[in-house]
């Protein structure tokens, strides 16, 4: 039993009576009494002391307190070793109180007993608190990492419980030995504003301490002190105080002030304190595959680290004409959801000597760093992180590796020209990584190329050519694997680079148009010859070479002269030689030192090889461009084409998908994917790629035209088309004509003829299966689908309507054939008119030798039928 009595000395009963009651309670087995007295000199308290405690009690309590003080010292020692804090003197203070109370017990034992009781409580409470703190410190440092959202540049949020100290706080009354870097005072001027807690780390030139800024609500700051034994460091500190305090960037630790400490031993830099994980600690987590650094998204984190560090480097290089100088995994902190460059002691002017954890080849042993050296160091930092990341082999990861590889090339001239240029490529690679991971568009305009004027559709984005009806009668044609564009077409249609802003012709080149290559060549003939002008001439001659090659490919009659046949060939040779000459002159003007590192040269060389039909020679040239600007669309588009043309379908698909995922408006990539899927007999996947081309893309009309052809096409080794396929194809055609920009009536007629041929096939198939195709078709077609169309354009509702419509379509196609008098054109007209009368319900034939009535003159295109 436990009994508590509050202020028993205030009881009205006599002290002896109260004592008797208390003794009776205490006599019970395992009974405990808790008495709280108001007056330490109360008579009842004296009676209790004499009869219950005895005069030996102070000595016994003193021994217990002394043992607890020994334990207190041991706990304090362990805490000091763990936290590097100066050991408190509370045990000595308690021991002094104990000695005083022991001596007082000789004269006033009751008062001494009371004070010893309070002292024992104080010692026990402090010991309990210190043991609890020791238990907390014995547990691992609490670091929580929250996973990021799906924003483009979001990083995980790193939360650290408290700062990690590596050394003790300084003595309260410091007397540093001459020539040492130790002995930063516990309190630092002005007016003891900074209360030093302990050492954080050793940096490039001295030590970094953690302190409280007592003038700003005890805000944590870092105090950086240079080593006074290093004369160079002290001299540099004077310059640092001016330039470092002036730095103000969100990704660079802020230097608040520069002061002298109390003993005048050297200057102290007062810096923003940032706590988190260094990139070296992040790298270790990657190696251990700890979430969220365990999967393919870590490649995006690495790219974000690079982009933010480059933002800080761009600020230093262009805004302050400084280099960071000592970029390493340990000098970049992931704090919260951002990063900080934390050791600014090595920041210096261009070419100045200084510390460098990573030393570029050109920096020498003294660390004389230029901006290109900072980019090299960043590349090495990112390379170390990449080596710890999970193995991922996609094109996005390869683009990231190429970006890092260019930053770390031994020759500074081969690296990125600036932090801004590298950031542009790294940001584009970040978008590529995200798009491929989520299969979601992450669009941004190209930094170096214009848009593609014409699509790489290989003819799929145009209405069927008339020549497809030259043979095969009225039977539906197979839409088989589609061929890529001819190399000469690819050379002319690949995007053109943006003109260099430093080129004297830059402003005029911004206003040029490729609609008339021959005319533009004449207009620019008198302009000043600059690299960009010569590269433009090279591209214009490539356009002219395509026209000559197309003319050369036209069929010729037996009576055509040999001289007429040579004219396009001579023109082709002339244009290719002129393109090569312009490129050679551009290379000369750029200079022998710069041209080997200028990606514009291999780009145009690759175009020239395509114009020569040398796709295999063009591929390594475009690969070189890809290695120089890994984030750009154009090199990937060119490489996708080269791989496709050379039959390397998996590589082609990978490049096309990389471009299309990031920017659905790149119609050429969508067509490339569509051709790959059609070759794999996957028309539905081809439809998905083409449907993704957005309405604001200049390639939208071509993509929707291709959708009509795919919906209406026969596909090898696929089930026979159904009435549902026809309904989808008809809806796609109406959408194309009314909403997607098809204004070519001749193209619409060819597409409509293709659809009618499909309907003949599916109606026949449904009838053979024992169904009623026309009732089924009426049920599948929405009522409003062709309500507003003129009768000739509506879906036929009977077989007779269908055949009459198809016959009329063949006759209109015959009118589209040019009347050149050439054998091929005449044969095409005959074939189309044959089809018209073959499908017509009356089965009239137009040939003079055929049985049946003779066709009137107007029906045979204004000619007498063959005699």
Provide the fold topology.
Layout: E1 2-6, H1 15-26, E2 32-36, H2 43-53, H3 57-83, H4 90-107, H5 109-138, E3 143-146, E4 157-160, E5 187-188, E6 194-202, E7 206-213, E8 219-226, H6 231-243, E9 255-260, E10 267-272, E11 277-278, H7 279-287, H8 298-320, E12 322-323, E13 332-335, E14 338-341, E15 348-349, H9 371-388, H10 395-407, H11 419-438, H12 487-493, H13 506-509, H14 517-523, H15 531-553, H16 562-590, H17 600-611, H18 615-628, H19 633-645, H20 649-662, H21 667-679, H22 683-691, H23 700-712, H24 723-739, H25 745-768, H26 773-780, H27 799-816, H28 823-839
Parallel strand pairs: 1-2
Antiparallel strand pairs: 3-4, 5-6, 6-7, 7-8, 8-10, 9-10, 11-13, 12-15, 13-14
Helix pairs in contact: 1-2, 3-4, 3-5, 4-5, 8-9, 8-11, 9-10, 10-11, 11-20, 12-15, 12-17, 14-15, 15-16, 15-17, 16-17, 17-18, 18-19, 19-20, 19-21, 20-21, 21-22, 22-23, 23-24, 23-25, 24-25, 25-27, 27-28
